[in-house]
């Protein structure tokens, strides 16, 4: 068990399981985007580890960019997604893959969808390492899902609780 700030967390998803999920997504991306020079857009901060591991496994040409969005305070969403750093690259007419560490309520994804629609991308798909189906309130399709989890607060592998826990190589869930 570990403690971050005032909360206790217990081990939940092992490094091996995460690595397997990352490898499966990367293998599908290699097949689906062969010779297509996709742009991978990581959603900071949480996606830095997942994005790095997936992109390292992509075999062909690709470009990499990031946006920085924020909506969580403590263990819950504020309901308002702020674009803290927007896209600084032209993506019109390009094939884009959004890389997310987690899709929870879907609020962040909806905001990203607005940005990409305004940019007139040729096509975009979403890859997320973790997905909470019970919490998801939107209808945007998520093409690549690593691990589905119940509606529990998790930390590790890029995900934080008030800034802590992003460096953990396995995932922990809040102890009830
Ligand atoms: O589906 P949602 O309910 O919108 O939750 C998902 C988003 O929440 C987290 O970001 P957060 O706002 O905590 O910022 P961070 O990535 O900097 O931690 C996570 O990285 C996702 O981007
Ligand atoms: O379960 C979570 N943990 C950390 N950050 C998050 N952002 C959305 N859901 C989560």
UniProtKB/TrEMBL annotation:
Which keywords has UniProt assigned to this entry?
A: Cytoplasm, Glycosyltransferase, Magnesium, Metal-binding, Nucleotide-binding, Purine salvage, Transferase
As one GO molecular function, the record gives: glycosyltransferase activity
Entry cofactors:
Mg(2+)
The question of whether Isomerase is a record keyword is answered with no
Q: Which organism is it from?
A: Autumnicola psychrophila
**What is the primary gene name for this protein?**
hpt
Its EC top class is: transferase
What is the name of this protein? Hypoxanthine phosphoribosyltransferase
UniProt keyword Glycosyltransferase present: yes
> Coiled-coil annotation: which residues?
none
> Which is one Pfam family of this protein?
Pribosyltran
Catalytic activity, as annotated? GMP + diphosphate = guanine + 5-phospho-alpha-D-ribose 1-diphosphate; IMP + diphosphate = hypoxanthine + 5-phospho-alpha-D-ribose 1-diphosphate
User: EC number(s) in its UniProt entry?
Assistant: 2.4.2.8
Subcellular localization: Cytoplasm
């Amino acid at each position: 068990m570990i403690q971050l700030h005032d909360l206790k967390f217990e081990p939940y998803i092992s490094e091996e399981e995460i690595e397997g999920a990352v490898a499966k997504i990367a293998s599908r991306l290699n097949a689906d985007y062969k010779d297509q020079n996709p742009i991978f857009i990581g959603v900071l901060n949480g996606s830095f580890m997942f994005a790095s591991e997936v992109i390292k496994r992509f075999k062909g040409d690709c470009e990499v960019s990031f946006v920085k969005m924020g909506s969580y305070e403590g263990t819950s969403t504020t309901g308002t997604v702020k674009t803290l750093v927007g896209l600084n690259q032209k993506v019109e007419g390009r094939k884009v893959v959004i890389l997310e560490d987690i899709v929870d309520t879907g609020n962040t994804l909806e905001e990203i969808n607005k940005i990409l629609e305004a940019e007139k991308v040729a096509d975009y798909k979403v890859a997320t390492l973790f997905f909470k189906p019970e919490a998801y309130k939107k209808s945007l399709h998520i093409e690549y899902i690593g691990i589905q989890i119940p509606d529990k607060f998790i930390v590790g592998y890029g995900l934080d609780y008030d800034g802590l826990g992003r460096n953990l190589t396995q995932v922990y869930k809040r102890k009830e």
